[in-house]
What does this fold into?
Amino acid sequence: MGTLVRIQLFAADELQARSAFRAAFDRVAQLDSILSDYKPASELNRLCRAPAGRPVIVGEDLFRVLTASQALAAQTSGAFDITLGPVIRLWRQARKDKRLPDATTLREASTRCGYHKLQIEPQRRAVTLDGPGMQLDLGGIAKGYAADAALEILRGRGIRSALVAVSGDIVCGDPPPGKRGWKIAADPAAVSGADSAPILELSNAAASTSGDAEQYLDAGGERYSHIVDPAAGQGITSRIGVTVIAPRGMRADGLATAVSLLGVERGLALIEEQPETAALVAVLESGKPRLVESARFQRFVAATTPGGELEAYGP
It folds into this structure.
């Protein structure tokens, strides 16, 4: 999926650990072959090459991610939209070329996007793309699903205490032995230049951080994020970073992207509607960082952060 995967676990012995590691990484590799838009032979890309208007029966993993994506798209009135593939690919190339995409090409690509053009039939597990040349991009949700799936594999191998990190998407099982939770230095403030970030303490939960700290294009005096606004057809230019905590990785991943697009007020309103979900949003205003917490965020902040004793993970 274009990123690195890290796993830490506590096992009874080295043999159990090695077996569990291998099985979990094999599961991530399997999902990469299903959900990645970087791989031409992936199930996702095969679906996108199917004739427009023809229902395609897809596998259970792809169906789950597509269903969750469409639910979030509807919930955000299209702010989260996995059909933006044609536009996202242009911006991906633009970051490589270090110049803005051609405006005419960008407008044409936008005509092939729109979450209403993706139809899902739960009874048959069938998916239909309404128009030709559509391209789905699961970059805002699939990594969280892969982390969830890897943790499930570990649990099936008897490993209860584990952490799976797929780039900025982190899923935790039971705490490390003798600890209350996994301490995670999730840093949405990296985009806004804040000096420090709260240390989260999580168990059987997920955290996802989204922002433009690593992937962006500087052009014409603006910084364009890799996160593309469906309404504008361009990378967002507001300096915003988001960390979302949720029960599952897929949910945290999708919500972090959605909040980045919705902004502070609308994004946190969305978070408050979700049970057991919290967020920290960092924005750069007049050159100064501002951090805004959701109502439940402090529940997940570590009570103490003793120097030298932290085991901190994060993007």
User: Anything to note?
Assistant: The chain is about 35% helix and 25% strand. The radius of gyration is 19 Å. Helices lie at 14-35, 43-49, 60-75, 85-97, 103-110, 142-156, 249-262, 264-272.
